């Protein structure tokens, strides 16, 4: 027995040292590397399983699959991308700098699009259901959260009806976000002919404990001609039907034009990871009469070689000259984004950040108060939305550029989740975003520096402690 315990201790410490070397080579910051190395060597019995569950910096399985995709699916892309040539935006025709956005997106910005702002759940689901009803060939569906409640059942009926009438329907969900979804819901879809798959972040023995990576994207594409993305999932709370959240404030986006194919490509890649199947889809851009908007679709996630979401947000902030308005339900940005917001305020930009008054994730909510006092001292204005829960993810730069998507301003969205953002450098669209956010700020209260400084000491300590956990929240 003593010999067995000795061997177990030896193996644990060897595993701790080996994992510490991996943490040294892969941690994003020196502080994170030091913390992991000390913990892994000192307490390997506890730290090793925690690291392999929560500490891995990149989704290595998806990286490998992406490499396979680049060879297996290259012929499809080679046929599709030339079709886009006449729709690619020219830098001189677009407000703002687009080269960095295209590099981050790994696909070009396109012109000839129509972007329609969908405010709150009623408008969003009306638009989604109308689009699904008009499907002729295929429907691609991807959500982080799907519930078997009133709107979830209505959504299921729509998909089943179309599948039974010959439309190819593909349904991809995140197994962590949709963990409460009953098996019967999925079986009903499958029996009707819908192709159903979980995202499978822990697929394969090497990734069995990789539960900290999640697919947070919300994508619907119909026939390659109409697409939707934004903040809303499929659940009753997104329609304000859950009392504890109150009226739910969210924003979604309907797209028509060549940008829909970029949204489709993001889904296509995720489906290939989840199932290994190559979907036969339409890849010919649709000409939309009188549509002139430029749009870039920027997928991001832990398989990227760079921190795409954080860099995209910083790029937008650095481009602001007069106005920078941001809304995010979870506001715990990395130091790069914090510094960019502070610099914008210092150079005279009207920097406003809108966050919820009431939280739905307490740790994330408390973490923000660790750094908000300093941001307010430097001129960043913080507002808290009053009527109900705020969930939209929107950014407005001056009067010309907007971003709508799934990215929250926190570490999880920047580094652990698969996300997607629509980058729209268009003055007409920006004017509609401005009007929407102006109403939101009118329904909010500004947080004062005095309010934060007068908090009890214990609340300040809790905020600092929870902020230390922000890398895995």
In a few lines, what is going on in this structure?
With 473 residues, this protein is an alpha/beta fold.
The level 1 CATH classification of the largest domain is: Alpha Beta
Say what the CATH topology of the largest domain is: Endonuclease, Chain A
Query: Roughly how much helix do the residues carry, as a percent range?
Result: 40-55%
How big a fraction of the residues is strand? 15-25%
Secondary structural class: alpha/beta
Note poorly predicted spans.
Answer: none
Counting DSSP H or I runs of 4 or more residues, the number of helices is 18
By oligomeric state, this entry counts as single chain
**Name of the CATH superfamily of the largest domain:** Endonuclease Chain A
Q: Could you describe the 3D structure shown?
A:
- This protein has 473 residues and is of the alpha/beta class.
- The chain has 3 domains: 2-55, no CATH class; 60-295, Endonuclease Chain A (Endonuclease, Chain A); 308-472, Endonuclease Chain A (Endonuclease, Chain A), CATH 3.30.870.
- 44% of the residues lie in helices and 19% in strands.
- The protein is built from 18 helices and 18 strands.
- It has helices at 2-26, 30-42, 44-55, 60-72, 74-80, 99-105, 120-133, 150-164, 183-191, 259-275, 308-318, 335-346, 362-367, 372-377, 411-416, 427-442, 449-453, 457-468, and strands at 110-119, 138-143, 168-173, 195-198, 214-215, 219-222, 226-230, 251-256, 293-300, 323-327, 331-332, 350-356, 381-385, 394-397, 401-405, 409-410, 417-424, 444-446.
- The strands form 2 sheets. The protein has a 16-stranded mixed beta sheet that branches. A two-stranded parallel sheet has the order 11-16.
- Strand 6 and strand 7 (226-230) form a beta hairpin.
- Helix 11 (308-318) runs parallel beside helix 12 (335-346).
- The two termini are 40 Å apart.
